Amino acid sequence: MAKREELVVGLDIGTTKIACIVGEVTDEGLDVIGVGTHPSTGLKKGVVVHIDETVRSIQRAIEEAEHMAGVEITSVYAGIAGAHIKSLNSQGVWAVKDREVKDTDIAAVLEQAKAINIPQDREIIHVLPQEYTIDHQDGIKEPLGMSGVRLEAKVHLVTASVTSAQNIIKCCHRCGLQVADVVLEPLASSEAVLHEDEKELGVVLIDIGGGTTDVAIFADGAIVYTAVLPVGGQQLTADIAYGLRSPSSEAERIKHKYGCAMMSMVGEDEMMEVPSVGGRAARQVKRQALCAVIEPRVEEIFALVRREIERSGFEDKLASGAVITGGSTILDGTPELAEQVLGMPVRRGLPMGVGGLVDVVKTPAYATGVGLVIYGAKRLHHPIFPGISADKRTVWRRMRSWFGEVF
């Protein structure tokens, strides 16, 4: 039996559901040992709008995961998304004191890269190194131990609304949970569904959740662009409820049972039963009528993503194409429609790189939750995750400042 080394818990605080994934880091790898989910009613487009409702949903998901895993959860890696997320690329320069790059030099040059003017209501939540340059030698991924006198760093900075981050931490705190870190959700999802060779060649990750669509572009092995669009699966459900004159709860069920993103993939004679509103009798409706509602909305989402890719300036560097994930990509025909709209190869991304309850979490809906666990595990300095470093002092300094403003 594998020796228990450490537990890592990912908490995906989504617009339509709260997902809690418990991971166990052992000498053999990372195993998922507990999963808890509960409908989310306190968020809108990825942002907390009702703290008490969000707290209740988090508590239910945590309790379910604790019961399944047989452990007590005290600390989590929490995901953050929403249209308030903004990102930019920056760079810093540092003079290496002893002619050999040390951890302190790397931390210093990253601090220099963070020295930009941002509004007081925003906070830098990630400093993601892209590459380093030592004495004009560029393309260096790991500068530690190398000789030189001038160290430069190109980084990707992700900023978020301070109040949005505060509210996520406050909800977790009310549930008796410590927040090990707040993690950008598309960054977390990329840990679970992208291959390293895709990141090297260039790939765009598209995570379509209930309230938001997260976009992350990788090139040369590093993240170069991130964005969060305020559209998602909830708009699909609302369109179905309106178009088929059916209750919203039934519209969600119909979407998952009969939905397809491309009308051409559905036969003309396929029928389905649609409940009506106001106690009226259910009706028999052609499945193509449902697809006629879904296809334009999904096409619109991918058109917005395409516009975001063009705005990024990295559209020519996506040799690997696109990877779509998130609960709203489960619908049949979604990858095929994405290929048409984006004009590049598209595959559906499933969580990978974990053991344990693989059959439970191997669905796009758990990509962010599993990714949060992998993200946290890489920061435990465990031998099965070599070459990963994290400035824990920076994390805790940020946490203390947020808690100081909340309480």
Short structural summary:
The strands form five sheets. The chain has a six-stranded mixed sheet with strand order 11-6-1-2-3-19, with helices on both faces. It has a five-stranded mixed sheet with strand order 14-13-12-17-18, with helices on both faces. It has a four-stranded antiparallel sheet with strand order 7-10-8-9. It is of the alpha/beta class and 407 residues long. The protein has helices at residues 51-69, 103-113, 162-174, 185-193, 196-201, 233-243, 248-258, 287-312, 334-342, 358-361, 367-378, 392-406, and strands spanning 6-13, 17-26, 29-39, 43-44, 47-48, 75-80, 86-95, 122-134, 137-140, 150-161, 178-184, 203-208, 213-219, 222-229, 271-274, 283-286, 322-325, 346-348, 355-356.
How would you describe this structure in keywords?
single chain, 407 residues, alpha/beta, Dna Ligase, domain 1, 6-stranded mixed sheet, 5-stranded mixed sheet, 19 strands, 36% helix, 30% strand
